[in-house]
Design a protein that fits this description.
alpha/beta, FAD/NAD(P)-binding domain, globular, binds NADPH dihydro-nicotinamide-adenine-dinucleotide phosphate
Length: about 625
């Protein structure tokens, strides 16, 4: 992991101290409580700016084979993989007015995915689609979600602008009763939850935020009626406006250059600078990515996952800044297989980390002409403390006369919002429009949030069952007492920066479970012993990352500075190995999770009415 510019021992000691000082400057006593939920506390964020008011429809009281909660890539892939297994009636229930999930809601100017499109967009082999760009714009990604949905007939049964409000297991029919906020109460043989991880926008609890009388919105609810233009730019409505942007995370880094180009003046309110690496976007040459061969996309995606999971691979097909920095991802997500002795690994890791961050700080100096502004834009923390970002337009935006960087680190963020502007230190910055690029509540959507009550066997609420010992699952997908419930996401399995790959493997797995249960006329339900055994697998070799995140700048990776607790939260050998493990388990052990139905339900009116292929 060493690089030619490896820092000396003395330089490392200086850096460690600098990082500690910067962290202390930023930690706030209120931690995660500093944020407010945009939807529940600011009603106007609950509206869907893209679909408008949903059309009236009669509530449904029918039956389907599978209900999927969430129409992002997780839900769409679950539906597609079910269809491939011959399960015909799949109903996706989605809050938004269409498919796409995060790509449905996030349509801000400049939106792209910074994971290479050829590995990020799933089912390229199956759909024959070749992305136009190495890093795809959001609209191309959203359209791809729609393409998959179209190909696998998922529109037919989908319910849009609808939120599931409860799931209740009905013992008599051995089916799930699904209730929604549109009055539906329908039955499903199986339920898949694919509710996403970054779906609830959050706002900082800044004093006076409600008093601002100018225009305001969150980046995930972009108001093009006000700004004019499209995600490609042309924001003519802002030409003579003073715009404030709060937040310089992955979203801020993409949106700020677009605002700089089109707005009268832009004030960037920064609390912690992101690390911003080279992006180098380019048009796709299909032969160069191997798209003239069958199976090219799957091979490329596995290659990427192998590299960022720390597996030895022969070649680097994607060859970008994610793959070249793969060694530094060990602390980012529980997805990296560490090679060698821990002590040696940590020493080499720190050197490589410092060299990388020095390179990124030098990039700021090379790109930003005003030395004072450049100094403020430098990230002083270890690479894996914050989500890395990638842009070739971000730093040059600060060389424009109409862009002002307002650093708020010393005041722990913006101090106050007034009727006309934003107060930082002694200065009030008057703005016409205030845009919040302040991110999302992490892990609050879906069944773990408590906002979607799930009652299993005997009416037991899922969160009660998990209250004492925490969540208990087999492979993160299924839980004892909750038959035919398949959970997708980041719970007790494995994750990766290329999350659509993770979701696709989960969808394949979920569909295989359903197909096996259908073939046997059985229920999917792990025993408690199987759950215990899985928890033991997770606990053994659980990575020791607590100390690392305790020393990091605050953010959602470390519960706003409180550290990331160790514990059996994920498969300890990385995502690549997890997928291999699941494939083997499906071949050899899948039968163990199938339980006999009670005879009354098997002969009754529930699942047997469903038609599966
Ligand atoms: P983040 O949570 O990453 O960033 C929020 C920003 O708001 C931070 O800069 C934060 O500062 C700032 N902020 C919060 N409160 C205040 C305050 N009171 N005053 C000043 N600043 C404040 O949200 P993003 O939407 O940027 O990104 C969320 C996630 O979405 C990413 O981590 C990534 O996983 C994903 N994403 C992926 C993209 C891709 O290309 N694949 C693109 C965009 C997003 P501080 O750091 O100090 O807390």
């Amino acid at each position: 992991m060493t690089t030619p510019e490896a820092p000396s021992t003395e330089e490392l000691a200086v850096l460690r101290q600098r990082y500690r000082d910067e962290r202390e400057r930023r930690v706030r006593p209120d931690g995660a409580a500093q944020y407010r939920d945009a939807e529940t506390e600011f009603g106007y964020y609950a509206a869907d700016p893209y679909a408008g008011e949903p059309a009236h429809r009669a509530p449904l009281q029918d039956s389907v084979d599978v209900a999927v909660i969430g129409g992002g890539f997780g839900g769409v892939l679950a539906g597609a993989r079910m269809q491939q297994q011959g399960v015909r009636r799949v109903r996706i229930v989605e809050k938004g007015g269409g498919f796409g999930g995060t790509w449905y809601w996030n349509r801000y100017p400049g939106i792209h995915c910074d994971i290479e499109a050829h590995v990020y967009l799933p089912m390229l082999d199956e759909t024959g689609y070749v992305p136009e760009w190495k890093y795809a714009p959001g609209e191309e990604i959203r359209r791809h979600a729609m393409r998959i949905a179209q190909k696998f007939n998922l529109y037919e049964d989908a319910l849009f602008s609808t939120a599931v409000t409860s799931l209740t297991w009905d013992e008599a029919s051995e089916t799930w009763l699904v209730a929604t906020d549109r009055g539906d109460t329908f039955r499903a043989g199986y339920v898949v939850t694919a509710t996403g991880t970054l779906s609830d926008p959050k706002l900082p609890g800044i004093t006076g935020i409600e008093d601002f009388s100018g225009h305001t919105f969150h980046t995930s609810r972009w108001d093009y009626a006000y700004t004019g233009g499209t995600p490609e730019g042309g924001l003519t409505g802002l030409a003579h406006k003073r715009v404030g942007v709060v937040g310089t995370g992955a979203t801020g880094v993409q949106v700020i250059p677009m605002l700089a180009r089109d707005a009268g003046h832009v004030y960037v309110f920064q609390r912690t600078p992101s690390s911003v690496d080279v992006r180098a976007n380019c048009r796709t040459v299909p032969e160069d990515v191997g798209a003239d061969r069958d199976g090219w996309a799957g091979e490329r995606r596995d290659n990427f996952l192998g590299i960022i999971s720390g597996e030895p691979v022969d070649k680097d097909l994607v060859a970008d800044r994610w793959t070249s920095s793969a060694g530094l991802l060990e602390k980012l997500l529980p997805s990296f297989r560490r090679q060698g002795e821990r002590k040696d690994f940590e020493a080499a890791y720190e050197i490589a980390d410092a060299a990388k961050m020095n390179e990124l700080r030098a990039r700021v100096e090379q790109s930003v002409t005003d030395p004072h502004t450049a100094e403020k834009l430098k990230p002083w923390y270890r690479y894996a403390c914050k989500r890395p970002t990638f842009s070739d337009q971000y730093y040059p935006a600060f060389n424009r006369d109409n862009v002002t960087l307002v650093d708020t680190a010393d005041t722990h963020g913006i101090e106050r919002v007034t009727e006309n502007g934003v107060v930082v230190g002694d200065t009030t910055y008057e703005v016409d429009c205030l845009i919040f690029a302040t991110g999302f509540s992490v892990g609050t959507s879906g069944i773990l949030s408590g906002r979607l009550p799930v009652r299993g066997r005997g009416g037991a609420p899922l969160l009660h069952r998990w209250a004492q010992q925490g969540p208990r699952t087999l492979h993160g997908f299924t839980s004892n007492g909750f038959p035919n419930l398949i959970m997708m996401g980041s719970l007790q399995n494995a994750s990766s920066v290329n999350f659509t790959h993770i979701l696709d493997e989960q969808a394949v797995h979920g569909a295989a479970l359903v197909a096996a249960a259908e073939a046997k006329g059985a229920l999917i339900e792990p025993s408690r012993e199987a759950e215990d055994a899985w928890m033991a697998v997770l606990a053994e070799d659980a990575p020791d990352h607590e100390w690392f995140h305790a020393e990091c700048t605050p953010g959602y990776y470390n519960r706003e500075g409180r550290g990331r607790p160790n514990g059996p939260t994920a498969y300890p050998h990385g995502a690549f190995a997890f997928h291999r493990f699941l494939r083997r388990w499906r071949e050899k052990s899948l039968g163990e999770i199938l339980q006999a139905k009670t005879s009354s339900a098997a002969a009754g009116s529930g699942p047997d009415q469903r038609k599966t292929g």
